[in-house]
Design goal:
By secondary structure, the protein is an alpha/beta fold. It has helices at about 20-30, 40-55, 65-70, 80-85, 100-115, 130-140, 155-165, 225-230, 240-255, 260-270; strands at about 5-10, 35-40, 60, 75, 90, 95-100, 120-125, 145-150, 170, 185, 210-215, 235.
């Protein structure tokens, strides 16, 4: 049997650290497989999924295809059903299985940062990763109030209505409300994104923020993480911990064996070292 091929699929995709992380794990387990980045289009996505699965591989899915992936899989986990987003596909090409491993990864990182105490969370973003964050909050922070931030008021309203369907107290953020936020979470891919209602480099830190999690990652930390630590003295983390946790869960779906989590963590840390 030829080497099994796995991929992270999205657009753009060249920035992804998933290949470095998964290839390190594959080598550590001595598996005959390789993991590559693949850029695709909406029209080519379904045929690509089938081709990879038919050859014995699997894939992770990133923006902008997570919701498309959720509609494609035949055997979705509860996390996929809840979020209507899927980031991991494996199994039968005619009846694929799908999971959203972002949910538990985000939940655990948010619990670690906040110590499990968060009555109010501000979420910036309305895409697939933001949906996973909402499911994470519903599981890890029952009774939380969720403020939705977006550059598009219409998207924020639609997203808040969707989140409210998960029994969360979700609302579009009110810039005039200065009640402190226990956790500010960025779930948007654009590192320059600013909220239209709140111009200025540090506008995301109003109202006052107690902890911050940015699902993006960068060498030396993202801008928001650096601002939190250096200017606000706010405990903060970028997305590397979430990346490793969701990747380890995906690895176990692909290979039905325990993921070498520390190997994966070292690969990510090495790639992000300034």
């Amino acid at each position: 049997m030829s080497k099994r091929l796995f991929a992270v699929v999205g657009d753009p995709i060249a920035h992804s650290l998933s290949p470095a992380m998964h290839n390190a794990a594959i080598a550590a387990r001595g598996l005959d497989a390789t993991y590559v980045p693949m850029r695709t289009t909406e029209q080519a996505f379904a045929p690509l999924v089938r081709e990879l699965l038919a050859a014995g591989g699997g894939l992770n899915v990133t923006m902008p295809f997570k919701q498309l992936a959720a509609r494609l899989v035949r055997h979705p986990t509860d996390a996929v059903k809840m979020t209507e987003a899927c980031n991991t596909i494996w199994g039968d090409p005619d009846a694929p299985s799908g999971d959203n491993t972002d949910v538990t990864a985000i939940r655990d990182e948010a619990l670690r940062l906040t110590g499990g105490r968060a009555g109010r969370i501000k979420l910036v973003g309305t895409g697939g990763s933001a949906r996973a964050a909402v499911a994470a909050f519903a599981d890890g922070f029952p009774g939380v109030t969720l403020d939705i931030g977006s550059r598009s008021l219409a998207r924020a309203r639609d997203f808040a209505r969707w989140a409210a369907g998960l029994d969360l107290a979700a609302r579009v953020q009110n810039p005039a409300d200065q009640t402190p936020v226990d956790l500010l979470l960025f779930a948007t891919p654009d590192p320059t994104a600013k909220l239209a209602a709140e111009p200025g480099q540090e506008s995301e830190f109003r109202p006052p923020v107690r902890t911050l999690l940015d699902l993006r990652y960068a060498k030396g930390g993202t801008l928001e993480v650096r601002l939190a630590w250096e200017l606000r003295h706010v405990p903060a983390a970028d997305g590397r911990g979430v990346l490793v946790a969701q990747g380890a869960a995906a690895f176990e779906r692909f290979f039905d064996t325990a993921a070498p989590v520390e190997v994966m963590r070292r690969a990510v840390e090495d790639a992000l070292r300034p």
